[in-house]
Amino acid sequence: MPHRSPWTCILWDVDGTIVDASDGILRRLQIASRHYGRPEVTRAELIHWIGPPMFETFQKQFGMTPDQSTEAVSYYRELGKRDGYTTGAKLYPGVGELISELHAAGVPQATASSKPEVQVRALMEHFGLTDDFATIVGASPDERTLGAKADIVAEALRRLAAEGIDVSRPVLIGDRHHDVDGAAANGIPSIFVRWGFSWPHESEGAQAVVDDVAQLRALLLLPAADTVPAADTVPAAETVPATQTVPATQTVPATQTVSATETGA
Hints:
This protein has 265 residues and is an alpha/beta fold. The chain is globular and about 60 Å long. The protein folds into 2 domains: 3-20 and 89-223, Rossmann fold (3-Layer(aba) Sandwich), CATH 3.40.50.1000; 23-83, Orthogonal Bundle (DNA polymerase, domain 1), CATH 1.10.150. The chain contains 8 helices and 9 strands. It starts with a strand and ends in a 42-residue tail after the last strand. It has helices at residues 22-35, 54-62, 66-83, 95-104, 117-126, 149-162, 177-185, 213-220; strands spanning 3-4, 9-12, 19-20, 90-91, 109-111, 170-174, 190-193, 208-210, 222-223. α6 crosses α7. This is HAD hydrolase-like protein. InterPro entries: HAD-like_hydrolase_sf, HAD-like_sf, HAD_2, HAD_sf, PGP-like_dom2. GO terms for molecular function: hydrolase activity; protein tyrosine kinase activity. It comes from Microbacterium rhizomatis.
């Protein structure tokens, strides 16, 4: 049966949402820990590192100044270049197939990642997903010129619009509060996935929360004959921004509480 989407375009976070790159990230962080004389980062501590820009995290976790953090990011990225950006990376089960299915249904998609764009592109090429995206957007190499999630989301929307894609009803999919906040800063809704690296409370502010790909698919693809689903439960403070225009034949997908659980992935 043909499917359509209630969204005009979909933005994807990468680390913790599409790709599990934790093995390579941990290995490089442990090398960096020893290099800078800091306690070695453990797997349990990855939740502090995966998601936010490394420029910020080196300052928070290693107590570095901005200049020291800039040097540490450069060192860490050089390790990644030598190691191979895709070494040890894995797709979360079913996510790649969903991205390809959305592309086949004619839904424009973009990445909106805090990971440097060159690495995002390498990962998408490695997993054969490049052609499923209208544009691939990530941070600038220094993670300072373009590094904040809100700015990356804005850049993804700008590039989509420049290609003539309708950006009146976008949605961002991510696994950290940075994703939720970055979407909100641009006046767009977000869907929070619980299979990434996050604390349970980080989903606050998202328009929907999902535990698995089947739940996510149900929010992104509808049988062509169906109408856009109405909200199941809509907190008064969380409404779809009024800046989004909607054709008269559709209603805006409002806040949906998909999962009843409150534990992290």
